[in-house]
Amino acid sequence: MNNVFEKMRRNRIGTVIGSILLVAVLFFGCACREISRDRDAIICALNNEFGSDAYTLVPENYFFPFNIQYVVTLHAYPEAPFTIWRGYSGGRVVPPFLPWLIGEEEHIYYDYRRPIGELAVADYCATYQIPNPVVHGLRGGDVEEHHLNAWNNGIFEFQVNASSVAEVEPYYREAAGFARFLEAKYPVLVNGRGSTIDVTVIGLHLKGYSPNADGRWPWHTEFTVYESRNGTGVIESWETVRAELLMKVAGE
């Protein structure tokens, strides 16, 4: 009788171990298949945007069994690599083979416009000998002279000081010149997702606003000089920008 019970006990242990191994094999197989599917989707997205021969793709960070983050280097801009991965809204890393747990679709996340934009800003400022080109800080912070920033999603921003609309025109001209510089030397920032060039003017105050108790103004005046989408860029005319500023700036 004891032998029978011992045999049954061993069978149960073997069944448990076998079940665990089976689950582990299935889990590993699903993870590998989904990681391969992620890579195929990433390559498809890159091919559609840049062409199959325009880049190199190298794994960087492994989040197994979740996904892999890759580094992309465009042959035309080797100094500005960027990362790409597939995840869910907000870029969260969760098991891609269990989408039913959160009820969301996967998305591919990458922003080549920030690193290439910073490269373009450095190139522009070196070409035209502009000092202190990039300010890494909060948007709208006080500055002593004009600066140029490259932000995420293809947004460029000039931060300038001016006390009247008339003083803004030279800065507008410079922003328009920077737009032409991008079109000539960095067409990747014009094509596809495109770019925007804004100017923030510190010293011009919007109608209807008052300074805080410390004398600082809560809002600065902004306007857009340039927008591009799908290879077409539009530079707003100075006459249009000036009319817009005169309508919304106090004291003009």
Give a nutshell description of this structure.
This protein is of the alpha+beta class. The protein has four helices and nine strands, in the order H-E-E-E-E-H-E-E-H-E-E-E-H. The protein is 37% helix and 23% strand.
Radius of gyration (Å):
27 Å
The largest beta-sheet arranges its strands as 5-6-7-8-9
Ranges where pLDDT stays below 50 over 5 or more residues in a row are 134-145
Terminal CA distance reads 103 Å
Roughly what percent helix?
25-40%
Helix/strand-derived class?
Answer: alpha+beta
Overall form: elongated
Oligomeric state as shown? single chain
The helix/strand order is HEEEEHEEHEEEH
Beta-strand portion reads 15-25%
Give the averaged pLDDT, no decimals.
Answer: 77
Major sheet characteristics: 5 strands, mixed
Annotation, overall tally of beta strands: 9
The DSSP helix count reads: 4
Your description of this structure?
The chain is α+β, with helices and mostly antiparallel strands and 252 residues long. Helices cover 37% and strands 23% of the residues. It is built from 4 helices and 9 strands. The chain has helices at 2-50, 113-127, 169-185, 238-248, and strands at 55-63, 67-74, 82-87, 107-110, 147-150, 155-161, 196-202, 221-229, 232-235. The strands form 2 sheets. A 5-stranded mixed β-sheet has the order 5-6-7-8-9. Mean pLDDT is 77; it is low at 134-145.
